[in-house]
Amino acid sequence: MSWxxxxxxxxxxxxxxxxxxxxxxxxxxxxxxxxxxxxFVNREQFAYSWLLAFMFFLSLCLGSLFLVMIHHLFDAGxxxxxxxxxxxxxxxxxxxxxxxxxPVAVLAKTIYKWMNENPALDHALRSKQPLFTxxxxxxxxxxxxxxxWLLSNRLLYWSLKQxxxxxxxxxxxxxGHSFWGMWAFGLSLTLAAIMWMKALQHQWFSTMYxxxxxxGSVWMALGTAYVITMxxxxxxxxxxxxxxHQYYFLGxxxxxxxxxxxxxxxxxxxxxxxxxxxxxxxxxxxxxxxTWWWIGIVIIFGHFFIPFLxxxxxxxxxxFPYMVPLCLWTWLMHYVDLSFNIMPVLHPSGFVxxxxxxxxxxxxxxxxxxxxxxxxLAHPPYPIKDPRLSEAMGHYHPMASPISGxxxxxxxxxxxxxxxxxxGNR
Length: 426
Fold this sequence. Notes:
67% helix, disordered N terminus
């Protein structure tokens, strides 16, 4: 029986996660009902709630796209097993995230107050033309989704092509697309963060805003990748090709981006607050009013200190009961961080967790989960003919070193080849 004709469930174990197969549909139905009700009950709240949920899941897709590209640019071996599901998450940028942007595009004049302002009477708006005009807003949107579609589609296309032939050409093509794609990625992510989030208060400007959104996006994508890897490992989907190192490296990079996110956000705050210019500082002044002050404290401790201290120990990165709650914590903190950026415009007096927020988030989570599972189960669960696959499995260990899995005295328990490792310590 050929690979293509073998049923998906028998090809890679219980990868369909049948116990949870109804959860995406339930989320989609319940969330869609709440979001639709919110659209008619409170149009303005719905617009901001939808934008918040959209930027949250957009960051997951963009963060996954970044992980795929750095895999190719660094010719990494350890990340081969996680590459395929990252490719499928990134591929949801088009058409699914583009379709989810439609309510934002329709309600843009409700969300972005600058669209109703006269540039002749607003110096900040006039100085940011021609980018901050209604036609350019929609033109930039089309260009952004076009770039993301081209990049994610080509990377997934050549990855699946590699599964069929095992030739060298797909590998070189993916490296080539990652080369130009990294430049396009940086520019497009920055424009998206500016046009869709920072423009909520168009008078404000920051040269680090795109980097802050990038850091949070990759941070959450790493936590998501860890949990998905663990689930697929326990389902028997990736067990044969996983080594201890995948979990260790994912946890290490998550630790690195915890520090990086804190650094860029603190640098942005410190520079603006130290300069004490009203046209810059007002953004932070608004976010120190009411309960937004406490949300800021939650971000400082929850987005940095808790994960930073939790990930300091080298041996915890393979402990599932320890790491999975921490990875899920990244979702909560990233959502709080995005709410801190978006919602003070609508609720200047303090944080409000509205039922429409939950509805919009649940609908998008259910929809994207269904799309991801459908696409993932339709193809091989990992790059079956990647030239670095054997290295990812742990067959190549010339000597014990930090690169090959730990310090010299910490490699006694590592294998030279996988034998159904099943992930971290359970």
